[in-house]
Design a protein that fits this description.
Elements (H helix, E strand, L loop, with lengths): L6 E3 L14 E5 L5 E7 L3 E6 L4 E5 L6 E5 L17 E6 L5 E5 L4 E5 L4 E5 L1 E2 L2 E2 L3 E6 L5 E5 L19 E6 L2 E6 L5 E6 L5 E6 L7 E5 L5 E6 L6 E3 L5 E5 L2 E5 L5 E5 L7 E5 L5 E6 L2 E5 L5
Antiparallel strand pairs: 1-24, 2-27, 3-4, 4-5, 5-6, 7-8, 8-9, 9-10, 11-12, 13-14, 14-15, 15-16, 17-18, 18-19, 19-20, 21-22, 22-23, 23-24, 25-26, 26-27
């Protein structure tokens, strides 16, 4: 079987988990900075265009549309914000509501189908820095990262917002700080059985992926020395990292299996399609889709 030239193989075992003769399709190339993709079972993807402060909807084969305006910032005082004022990470909760990481508002919001409403707005009576990525456990627990990427010069403003960058757990109406080991926490994802929470950073000075017990919230340990922006698991517990090299694929023990090179650096990805085997990738100005990637 032919192997796509964009795939660099580290371990031949990758051929057991991927269709190696895949095609990388460009769905759109007009974004400012795309992020936070999520699949909707109605047959479309949503993603954030952060500087434009919108969430876009795209059906493969069709032109993207604006889905939500002012998705991450609903005020005019942006003096202490970076240009990345909009929404970032997106996910659906167990009731089918869209959860939105809002940079400009420093909060996690909820779209109920009619309006964007506050959901997790404060910690210690202060807004968050700029929530980055988010994932929902099957028991309803919400995990999200809170970085300073949306703040001016990407620096914390401890006199107004949070004292540190962290990864949080929202469970039973209570907020718990899970991880404070990154200055720039990025992606969060769950293993397919929802027992492990994976966390990462895109900064070269924070080149490690951590694994936590999603139930007890205790640190399991460092999985490997890798950077990643967005991070996702597949159905077989392999990890897909969005890194400068492209999509870096690891097994559940952190071993490199392969890398899919892309023309622009990926920011995040998600699984979609009717069988959940299509990989949808946000990559700065570009949106990529690899159909039937997973075997």
């Amino acid at each position: 079987m032919a192997i796509n030239s964009a795939l660099h193989i580290y371990d031949e075992g990758i051929e057991q988990i991927l269709q190696t003769n895949f095609e990388i399709r460009v769905l759109d190339s007009s974004c400012s900075f795309s992020e936070g993709p999520v699949w909707n079972k109605e047959g479309f993807y949503l993603f954030s265009d952060i500087p434009r402060n919108v969430i876009c909807k795209i059906i493969p084969g069709e032109t993207k549309q604006i889905f939500i305006q002012q998705s991450g910032c609903t005020h005019n005082d942006t003096t202490i914000l970076a240009d990345q004022i909009g929404s970032n990470g997106l996910t659906y909760d167990n009731d089918g509501h869209l959860l939105i990481c809002q940079h400009g508002n420093g909060a996690v919001a909820k779209w109920d189908g009619e309006a964007v409403k506050p959901f997790i707005s404060k910690h210690n009576n202060r807004r968050f820095n700029s929530p980055n990525d988010i994932v929902v456990h099957h028991d309803g627990t919400v995990f999200f990262s809170d970085s300073p990427y949306g703040l001016k010069d990407q620096k914390l403003v401890p006199e107004k917002f949070q004292l540190l960058a962290g990864i949080y757990c929202w469970r039973n109406e209570k907020l718990i700080l899970v991880c404070e080991q990154y200055q720039y926490p990025n992606g969060v994802c769950l293993s397919p059985d929802h027992k492990i929470l994976y966390c990462c950073s895109n900064k070269p000075t924070e080149k490690f992926i951590l694994a936590y017990d999603a139930g007890s919230l205790e640190l399991i340990g460092k999985l490997c020395e890798e950077n990643s922006d967005g991070i996702k698991c597949d159905a077989k517990a392999n990890l897909f990292l969005c890194a400068r090299e492209g999509i870096v694929i690891l097994d559940a023990k952190g071993k490199r299996l392969g890398v899919i090179s892309l023309k622009t650096i990926p920011t995040n990805c998600c699984w979609g399609g009717e069988e959940g085997k299509d990989l949808f990738i946000t990559a700065r100005e570009n949106i990529y889709l690899i159909r039937n990637l997973q075997r």
